[in-house]
Structure formats: C-alpha cells, structure tokens
Amino acid sequence: MEITSLVTGGAGFIGSHVVNHLLKQNHKVVVLDDLSGGVQENVNDAAIFCEGSILDVDLINTLFEEHKFNYVYHLAAYAAEGLSHFIRNFNYQNNLIGSVNLINASVTYGIKCFVFTSSIAVYGTNSLPLVETQYPQPEDPYGIAKYAVELDLINANKMFGMDYIVFRPHNVYGIHQNIGDKYRNVVGIFMNQILEDKPLTIFGDGEQTRAFTHIDDVAPYIANAVNVREAYNKVFNVGSDTVYSVKELAIAVCKAMQSNLNIKQLEKREEVIHAYADHSSFNAVFKPKTLTDLETGLLEMAAWVKAYGSRSSKEFQNIEITKKLPASWKKKSGQ
Ligand SMILES: NC(=O)c1ccc[n+]([C@@H]2O[C@H](COP(=O)([O-])OP(=O)(O)OC[C@H]3O[C@@H](n4cnc5c(N)ncnc54)[C@H](O)[C@@H]3O)[C@@H](O)[C@H]2O)c1
Q1: I need a surface site. Which of 32, 86, 189, 307 has the fewest CB within 10 A?
Q2: How far is ligand 1, taken at its centre, from the CA of residue 117, in Å?
Q3: What is the pTM (predicted TM-score) of this model?
Q4: Rounded to an integer, what distance in angstroms lies between the CA atom of residue 73 and that of residue 106?
C-alpha cells in the first residue's frame, strides 16, 4: 500500500531534503508551504506542491481529507530565534497556533505518527552539554513556541494516542538554505555577504559558540524516523558534536569561499552565548554514520552558493516591538 506523507515547510531548507529522502523511500509526498521563507524550486518535481499556510484550517482539512496522510512531518516555521523577541504575536501564531492546527487535523484524521522539528532553543541557558533530560528553560519566544508544541504533542499522545517523534536540531547548514535572510542562518549570511563583497557582520566579539551541523547529518534521520519504532514518543537532539566560535566559523567560511577575511563587529545582542548538545540518545536509537566535518560541508555549500548567486535580504515588514531591536535590524528608510 502506498504511504502518503505531508511535509509542511517542504519548500524550505531542511524540509526539501526530507522530501527528497521520503521520495527515495517511495512515499507519496504532499508539500504545504506558504513560500514565506522557502522557494518552489527547492521542491522535488515528484512531490505534490500546495502553496498555502498552516494557519489556513480549511486548507489543512481539505488536504487531510483528500490525501489520507499516514505521516505528518511538520517543519514549517519562521525560525528567526533572535528576531522572535520583536515579533511575538507573529511567532506564536505561525509557530505555535499553526502547529496546533496540524495536530488537531492529525488527531481527527488518525495519522500514524507526527514528526516535529523543535529546536535546542527550548533549553535556553541550561548547563552544557544540553541533554534531553534537562528541564527546558527557553529564553525567547521562538523557543517557548517550540516547547509549547512539544508539550501539546505529549498531551495529544496521552489524550488521543497519537504517536509523535520530536527532533531538536541545531545550526544546520547546506544546500537549499535561504542565504537571503539577514535575521537567521549565520553560514548563509556570511556566504551572501561574501558574494555581495560586504564585510562579515558579527554580533559582539564572535566568541559565542555553536556546533554547526551539515544537512546530511539531520534530514535522512528525520525522514526515516517513522520506521524506527524505538523513536516513537521520544525527543532527540540531533546534530554535530564539534563546537566552533562564530569568529572561527567566519574564517572557515572565507576559506571555503576563497575570500579574504573582513569582519565588521556589531553591537552585542541578546542571545545564548554557548550552546552544544549531547547526542547519546540519538546515537543509541538511530546509529548514525560519521558526521560531516565543517570544512567538507562548507565547501559543498560554497559551490552551490556560488552557482546560485547572492540573495537580497528583505526587511521583516511587521516588527511589533522596536525597543532593544538591534540597529542592523531597524528598517532603513525607503524599504
Ligand atoms: N535550520 C536550523 O538550523 C534549525 C535548527 C533547529 C530547528 N529548526 C527547525 O527546522 C524547521 C525547518 O527549518 P529550516 O531551517 O529549514 O527553515 P526554512 O525557513 O528554510 O524552512 C521553513 C519553511 O516553512 C515555510 N513556512 C513558514 N511559515 C509557514 C506557514 N505559516 N505556512 C506554511 N509554510 C510556512 C517557509 O516558507 C519555509 O519554506 C523549522 O521548524 C525550524 O524551526 C531549524
């Protein structure tokens, strides 16, 4: 029998790779994406593409009715963590209420498993390494929305028996990433700045650290998770173990792009300074292959970015709070 999966956010970065892996496993794939962050050219032609929003309950019900999904992979979100302080209403509508709309339909139509990409943003400033047994203490509206969805999935499982799997990825980079969003994706931002002959902008001293993760170390495992029974109703950190400072990342990106290092330091912003995660639960259940090293991953992405060209960053149109908004995120006149 044909397996049918819905991938929300399937025109985006991680979602489009998940779609490709599902198609390889012979799923019939329906993509729901409003193209607010993704582009249709990311969507594999073998998938059915529906342009629309997870906020459109009628559309969601129509899709569930028509396709009788076995699995839902919910990746649609606006993942601009730093900006989420200033777009609180939008963040909760899009990332929390939109998710609840999908959970409602998934319960009603009796899907087999709901796969959700949360984030290590749920941990906030916890002791390192971040581990799934820690009590989440998100420090921004993006992380709060992600954790609220996780809690809602636990509740939907208890109340209605709907199975779920939660992934908490971190700092993923690679082909298909939106490099034209100045509010997120530091690897893409740096590469875009190099293509535009601009200095690489860093908030503060660049000593903040992250474990940058190649897409191939995330997407195939998300796609295959529904076949891993042991993963059901559990939460997994997923991503790289090797930590780099943002300044070290800038140097590595310049090397991959064959460009000279030119950094412009911006005023420090409100953010978690150090974040890296423990992956022992993920390793025990998914038994992953060796992780892609940063140099190899950046070279692959750099080749794609050079062929793809630079992208101009759009201003987010509906900033709700301007107090403490970083100066580089303030609207320039005429935009
Ligand atoms: N990239 C990372 O490092 C990272 C880390 C942790 C978690 N995540 C999570 O993984 C998921 C995918 O992230 P990504 O990096 O691929 O981002 P992305 O922006 O490339 O993809 C998200 C997609 O969702 C779509 N979308 C947004 N709002 C929508 C709506 N209301 N209705 C329909 N579609 C909508 C966008 O158009 C976009 O194509 C997100 O849920 C994100 O929070 C990503």
Answers
A1: 307
A2: 9
A3: 0.97
A4: 11
